Amino acid sequence: MPDFEQALKARLGPLELAPQVADEVFAELAEHLEDLYKSHLAAGIVSEEAELRALREIPDGAELARKIHRAKRGEETMNNRTKQIWMPGLVTSGLATCLLAIFENLGMKPAVLSTRAAIPTLFYLPWLLSLPVFGFVGAYWSRRAGGGTGARIIAGVFTSFIYLALPFPLWSLALVVDPRTPRMAVLGWFWCLLNWAVLPCLALLVGALPATFIGSERKQQILA
Amino acid sequence: MIASVMKRGSGELAILTVLAEERLHGYEIAKRIEQQTAGVLRFNLASLYPLLYTMEKRGWVKGTWEIAASGRRRRCYRLTPAGRKHLAPLRQEWAKFFRALHRLAGVAHA
User: Fold this and answer.
1) What is the pTM of this model?
2) ipTM of the assembly?
């Protein structure tokens, strides 16, 4: 009996799946080729020709490997990214922004840092102090959805990405087109980056890090 | 010769239909479909298994390793309740499709 499993591994290459899953795929496909080979022998075809006809079932090994990889992993990867990063990130960002709006409506005034910049820098201290909670929730949600360390941290600090992505392109564009005070606008731009991206990111990280690591240590202690 | 796009769309229907009758491994699935369609629908290894794995991922079929009477290890597939639920409307859609073709071009399914 020809070694169809070796022939498959040579044609498809490594499947980029977990080793056990890849082994099972090769074993299953090899069984199929063996059945085909035996049916050709039963029809009176000689062994070498029967083997060649069986192997013709795989006209393009690389393409088949890609299709199998996509079928086994493709959808799962997309769903995992949504569950582990986008969902926790967007929900906690929405809640953090709602809380900021609530503080505004309640009349809480931001601390104004007086600078020479054209854009006054506003520090919403109560809001900044509440961000660790959102960072913790985002990271913990990602962890419960099976997210790894990277996914947990990204989900935890996602809110700062939103503030970085939304206003800064507009402010950058205004910096370019505003002819009035370019030097002071640049300084204001950096203060805004600090206020709306860097400080929130650090505050979120304060909450995200415990949710990312503390439980993992406990699990390692139990296993040891 | 049936266009490849039609074959692709009918692949799900064909596999789910044969598995609705009994549990089969991959080679048996391909053979059963070829026999029951008189060779019109033919799955080779490269077209069958990516589709089977996709349907397994969606929860429509479930594959388990079993030891056959010959002592060989085979992966047999069965239709899941979710697959059975997916099959019924799929059959209706295809029936509607062929009725529409029949009205248009006098084409009838077997």
Assistant:
1) 0.56
2) 0.85
